[in-house]
């Protein structure tokens, strides 16, 4: 049986840390569906269509990886995709608390859906979508944090 996982996030924008998690998830699962979902705690910066565009560019040539957007609960999307697991990256202890709560809620809603945590690589400890946005907004170098081919789109968004 094909084993499918969903890798959800805001991806506002996608970073090299996200791409590393996608690659590693693909080693564990037959198919990875990267899903742009809405995090009610965050006000979006990039339109969803542009986030998808950058994700598609970042995942180009990755066999068994697809990209989608979904407006609703993660468990509903996972059910729709026939996924057996949700993958999330954890950078530091602080991430774990919030992620554990989310995993517990999702487990209540859909007990058969496992959450798999992958530790972020140490070299990605300082990488985040919010850091990319902040550096881009103030003219700092953010290119090392985003996948090749995405820097131009990010720069354009913040061009005066
Ligand atoms: N390396 C470096 N940074 C990483 C990383 C890695 N491997 N993996 C994640 N990050 C960073 C991101 O850059 C981002 O940083 P920022 O917050 O400073 O911008 C942060 O970790 C997490 O962002 P991201 O992974 O893009 O998504 P998210 O945490 O905003 O996603 C959802 C949350 C969308 C999955 C969640 O809100 C959701 O499931 N929404 C749907 C509604 C739902 O089902 N809710 C039920 C649960 S209550």
Write the layout of secondary structure elements.
Layout: E1 4-9, H1 16-28, E2 31-36, H2 48-58, E3 65-69, H3 74-81, E4 85-90, H4 93-109, E5 114-119, H5 129-137, H6 151-158
Parallel strand pairs: 1-2, 1-4, 2-3, 4-5
The chain binds coenzyme A (COA).
Walk me through what this model shows:
The protein is α/β, with parallel strands linked by helices. It has one domain: HUPs (Rossmann fold, 3-Layer(aba) Sandwich), CATH 3.40.50. It is 41% helix and 18% strand. It contains six helices and five strands, in the order βαβαβαβαβαα. α2 links the parallel β2 and β3. The protein is globular and about 45 Å long. The termini are far apart. The model has no long low-confidence stretch (mean pLDDT 96). Bound molecules: coenzyme A.
Any descriptors?
single chain, 160 residues, alpha/beta, five-stranded parallel beta sheet, 6 helices, binds coenzyme A
Short description:
With 160 residues, the chain is of the alpha/beta class. 41% of the residues lie in helices and 18% in strands.
Overall residue-averaged pLDDT value: 96
Read across the widest sheet, the strand sequence of neighbours is: 3-2-1-4-5
Structural class estimated from helices and strands: alpha/beta
β content, as a range?
A: 15-25%
């Amino acid at each position: 049986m094909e084993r499918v996982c969903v890798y959800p996030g805001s991806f506002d924008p996608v970073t090299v840390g996200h791409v590393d998690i996608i690659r590693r998830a693909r080693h564990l699962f037959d198919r990875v569906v990267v899903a742009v979902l809405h995090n009610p705690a965050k006000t979006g910066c990039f339109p969803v269509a542009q986030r998808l565009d950058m994700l598609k560019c970042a995942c180009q040539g990755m066999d068994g990886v697809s990209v989608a957007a979904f407006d609703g609960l993660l468990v509903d999307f996972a059910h729709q995709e026939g996924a057996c697991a949700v993958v999330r990256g954890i950078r530091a202890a602080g991430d774990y608390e919030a992620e554990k709560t989310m995993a517990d809620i999702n487990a209540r809603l859909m007990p058969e859906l496992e959450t798999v945590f992958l530790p972020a690589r140490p070299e990605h400890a300082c990488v985040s979508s919010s850091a990319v946005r902040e550096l881009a907004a103030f003219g700092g170098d953010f290119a090392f944090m985003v996948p090749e081919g995405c820097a131009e789109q990010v720069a354009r968004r913040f061009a005066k």
